[in-house]
Amino acid sequence: MSQLSLGGANGPTSRVGSSAVAWHQRLARSLSPSNACRLLIALLSPVMLASGHAKPAASPAAPTEWVDRDTGHRVVQLSTEPGSESLYFNLNPFTPDGTKMVFTSPAGIATVNLQTRAVETIVPGQHLHVIMVGRKTGKIYYGGANRTVYAVDPDTKAVRQIATFPRGQQVAAVNADETLFAGTITERTDAGTNADAFDGGPNRRTDRERADAQRGKKGQMMEDRLAQRYPMSLFFYNLATGETKTCNRGTDWLGHLQFSPTDPQLLLFCHEGPWHKVDRIWTIRPDGSHLQLVHQRTLTMEIAGHEFWSADGRTIWYDLQTPRGQVFWLAGYEPDNGKRTWYNMQRDEWGVHFNVAPDGKLFSSDGGDEKMVAHAPDGKWLYLFHPELIADRSAGNVDTSKLIQAGVFQSEKLVNMGPHDYALEPNAMFSPDMKWLIFRSNRSGANQVYAVELAKAQKN
What we know:
The protein is mainly beta. It has helices at residues 18-28, 33-50, 208-214, 218-228, and strands at 65-67, 73-77, 100-105, 108-113, 119-124, 129-133, 140-143, 148-152, 159-164, 169-174, 180-186, 232-238, 244-250, 254-259, 267-271, 281-284, 292-293, 303-309, 316-321, 328-333, 340-345, 354-356, 363-365, 381-389, 405-416, 429-430, 436-441, 448-456. Among the domains are: 1-54; 65-91 and 310-460, no CATH class.
């Protein structure tokens, strides 16, 4: 298998000087109009990019498979259409048999066969957003126009229209046995739409232009939205009967709904907003009972968030900083018994999102740039983490039953993300066979879906 390398951090780049451009302009005048146009575009584009007069575009010559020369790991491009994206890091994109993964593209909702890498468009359309793939049937649940929710079988492409929801009501999660939807109801009295501009955002495609437009503005938008204190509530929709039940009404900004992957009656959700201003992570039952705060801060400016379930449903994992931007942990909480485990990491190893392998034995970080909360000087990497617990040597002299089990991450770099613009979050996740880490990146100039092999590539 040939080994390819990218420009930028992983390979050479080229520049075209102004004198060379002038010479080629004279040459172009001797060519046919169509050939001259193609020549001038090819030659002038690098100059325009270097001077900031044009945005990067996907290069047709960009490699689709290479070995990262800084890490020794093989990277492959899974999507074929510029503007494609994998799902948000805590949404299930995989069919139950683990052979296919759902992603979005400008053409619609697509799947990639993880064994053959064959890509197929399942639902064509522009304004579709994936809720998740059902863990029981493998149907893809998605939202379309006019707040209507559908389910499609990825094999037969048969589409079922499930329900159309009122304005301000958004479906965000499907439970483990696919009997319930969970979502939020936002009540707004100001002019305009009732739909919350933030709710559901992670499920939608993020083109480069929109990401650029929001750069540096998210913090203030979060502050502004939290200050609105719109009345909100959770709702649960029964797919068999159409019955809707609501609970937990208040003025907290609710979001990031995730059902347990194994318990159909347990929902994880958050109080959204700047993390240092909210008690973020909560669980609740569909009848409104057992409302539980997952993490209670003990330090000023301690923050916790970007929560997600382990594959077996036993543990809720989340980004913990004690305090914000200083000491970094991936923390775990087991709802059944209250057990807590915290793994420490270095500043450069922090990621926008973390994830855990299906067997719970490996973790990942998708890194971040120097402008993010960790302000990491060298944080633009995808990391593989090997967890190591700190041994208890108290010999039974200390009651450890209610103490936090501490550990550390031994890290391995997988991909140099130097060419990547973190206006697009990579949202890394493990493949079901635990051989790959799948992520989205704009390293070629356009959003695409990639996978990096966890085992190092064999040298020729």
